[in-house]
Amino acid sequence: MSVSDMFVALQGVLTADQDIREEIRKVVQALEQTAREILTLLQGVHQGAGFQDIPKKCQKAREHFGTVRTQLESLKTKFPADQYYRFHEHWRFVLQRLVFLAAFVVYLESETLVTREAVAEILGIEADRERGFHLDIEDYLSGVLTLASELARLAVNSVTAGDYSRPLRISTFINELDSGFRLLNLKNDSLRKRYDGLKYDVKKIEEVVYDLSIRGLNKEATVGVGGEK
Q1: Which GO molecular function annotations are given, in alphabetical order (predicted)?
Q2: Whole-prediction pTM value?
Q3: Binding residue numbers for Mg(2+)
Q4: Which of 60, 140, 176, 191 could form a disulfide with 116 if both were Cys (CB 3.0 to 4.6 A apart)?
Q5: CATH, range 1-135
Q6: Contacts of 208 (CB under 8 A, 6+ apart)
Q7: Is residue 134 helix, strand or coil?
Q8: Contact in structure between 207 and 153 (CB atoms under 8 Å)
Q9: Which residues sit in the known binding site?
Q10: Could you give the CA distance from residue 222 to residue 219 in angstroms, rounded to a whole number?
Q11: CB burial class (10 A; 0-12, 13-18, 19+) of residue 153?
């Protein structure tokens, strides 16, 4: 084979690879648009009237996840099944965003932390990497850390809306989350940096709870937790 033939063959490989990446990019763009729609919907809970509409917003969000599942099903067909991590960077960010959105919906519904397996089910993908297109553990953890920041914001807006019990419940949840992350030996630099931000979320929520205590509103909040919310 001549040098020219060698480079023609190499160009063929490069072109095929570029075609795959372009097909992936198109699907990822659609996923990003759907994620923006879900985020816009859920952002309504931060407004005063939004607290009364949480069940309805969560229901609508879950309907949007039907579109996400269809789009991820399409994404799976765009590259060889055994090359997940070769192309992972293309969808890593949007998948982390979708994990956050799924975790936010589950928290708003039940005030619990969604498992990785449950997120994978919501997204219509696998939790086990051996079974194909899956939810990477680090992507799951990144999405959960984004949830912590969102809940810190929700704690502040809850007070503004006159809901004084919610910040206490959020504080308990975030502290449990922080304790969980402390059990991990994080090697991923990006993930470790994001985890460093969790302490600021903890501090922000503690300040909200402390302010409620100073203003004497924590007593009203405690009654709300024990009785009607």
Answers
A1: endonuclease activity; hydrolase activity; metal ion binding; RNA binding; sequence-specific DNA binding; single-stranded DNA binding
A2: 0.89
A3: 150
A4: 140
A5: 1.20.58.190
A6: 155, 156, 159, 167, 171
A7: strand
A8: no
A9: 150
A10: 5
A11: middle
